[in-house]
């Protein structure tokens, strides 16, 4: 946003190393042109390098659903703004150019005052906090929303996403950002639930999630919910996933370190220095993992959908679709949402 200084979740980055922006990011310009009014900026995880949203400089926002729990990151400020009903939608904060910072907006359309928030999603920075706080979070196809003006975390994965409490608003904001025409929803050929592969990791009864989703899908579209049990492979034991971060973050930290001695929160400094001191061998491993991750993430888009509460904690599910199916997935969420809420009420009354 013109006239504002990026924060990147760290006061040294804001006050001592960067000047005010002279241009506006295309993603922000698009929603403003679509009728939005910017209501404010929020604070992100420090250096976009956490998924917990514990920032020693600015404090930790409260999880609206579960005040004694973390709210996820790094687009946590955006999530709280929507979940706390300060706005109806927001752009997520992981990397937008004005980073303390994400932007929260009011959108004036159809004689109705609507607000929203957007953010960016690299490894889950929209979907994770959305799921923790019981709101909708959308990660579009990689590259379909401009990331010009975005501080990079991992350029080949960074994606601008957005949050909303209501599926209609989520869809409307998406059509502005993605420049999509209004079309009639298309019935999905089928919706596959990966119950056999992943839901064993849940700490709540599996049926609390699957029953709500399956019954909603079958009510609207018929019996078309297969499983993935035939594709389930052996679990990989003792895998080492703690590879070094991408060079972009290392470069950003080297710049910051060369100008000031930044005051970084616990854990952030250690991880960043690990990236700076990466060996060639570690970097080769990182590139290999990045290639596989990029191939997976750039062929998919996703949305986190709240499924109510269980034991005073938010329950959510993610829907994935193939690359380029953004309009289809937004329409599907809007179509499903009313029925999902009916099934959520039934599930919560039955306490399962």
From TrEMBL:
InterPro entries: Amidase_dom, AS_sf. Transmembrane segments: none annotated. Pfam families: Amidase. Residues 27-92, 116-178 form the Amidase domain. SUPFAM superfamilies: Amidase signature (AS) enzymes. It comes from the Eukaryota. This is Amidase domain-containing protein. It comes from Rhododendron simsii.
